[in-house]
Amino acid sequence: MTPLVHAFVAHFGEMGSRWGINRTVGQIYALIFVSPRPLCADEIAETLSYSRSNVSMGLKELQSWRLVKLRHMPGDRREYFEAPTDAWEIFRTLAEERRRREMEPTLSMLRSALLETPSSEEDRVAQERMKGMHDLIELMSNWFDDVQRLDAQTLAKLMRMGARVQKLLELTGQLKPGTKE
Amino acid sequence: MTPLVHAFVAHFGEMGSRWGINRTVGQIYALIFVSPRPLCADEIAETLSYSRSNVSMGLKELQSWRLVKLRHMPGDRREYFEAPTDAWEIFRTLAEERRRREMEPTLSMLRSALLETPSSEEDRVAQERMKGMHDLIELMSNWFDDVQRLDAQTLAKLMRMGARVQKLLELTGQLKPGTKE
DNA sequence: CCGAAGTTTCAGTATTTTCTGAAATTTGAT
DNA sequence: ATCAAATTTCAGAAAATACTGAAACTTCGG
After folding, report:
1. Rounded mean pLDDT of A136-157?
2. CA→C1' distance for B46 and C10 (Å)
3. How far is A181 from chain B (nearest CA, A)?
4. CB of A180 less than 8 A from some CB of B
5. Is pLDDT above 60 for B178?
6. How far is CA A163 from the centre of its chain?
């Protein structure tokens, strides 16, 4: 590893825990991401000085996040891994997986909690707060879904507009006052 | 705790690790969030059966996330805690803190990596990929900043529009072809 | 300034998570 | 079918993280 790559890999290792993956997984991903060619598990284990089995686990985890793709090289039985390099594609994948793992379980817990009949004033207040949380999470979840379908270019456009989108919304509201929202 | 509140608290405890906080912190937050009145540390420790010091740590952590607010009750020296109940406010706070903790350190690492002169073809490729990642993170970071400033109503409007915003952007492009992006 | 009520720190313990190496399994060429 | 190359599983070791209780500290009324 060159010093440049090493610094990148080390950073991903350190940040891993904040991002909900562990150090090994972070480093493996970073290494694959900057590699000019697909890597096999042995090369990764060698480069990062991790056991072969640890790397195997890490690669499985990365596959479950859909952050790495499996490839086969002709005349070689080993599995090679590469990472999508398009940043927008990565963002989309991450957003989708996070929604699935971090929002959906909570949404379904909230849904069933809201079906219960409150047994006290305390419960009534609790449900009220849960309702607020539920509605927001649902809104965001659907929004993610929608955004998922936009092409990279439109997304970029939307982001670059930033706060100016507010003006646009006000304008639209005036143009089509009956359309609501 | 009523069964309803218990289920909510337990869920937050379990999800905690996925959200980058620990079980205790998740449960403390959940409890404060649904409580109809501010709670003091002793009540929390009692209700959740955690040691007083563990609760103290947890509350500090929640304060660092700006998810709970400190209050004082007249004639009582103890510190009471309550959580903002407006879902949008919570979302904003979370987005801002995550940006600060999960994106900014990476952004600055990438910035310095991109200043290096690549020492090989391998480094050149690595830098290219890092550039893509850097640009996207920066874009998102700035977008978060912008969105931060929108009021809840506009945000909700934007989200509810979902994918239809694309149409709007196309339309705008046609209306003001010279305005760029 | 004293003491009681409250909060925080911290060193040690418990728990959880990560990592390894050996064994088991799968795969595919012959 | 056989066998060697590769991958996966898994039980236990190692490391990291969370939790506790006791002691230290802070705050404020008197």
Report:
1. 86
2. 22
3. 6
4. no
5. no
6. 24
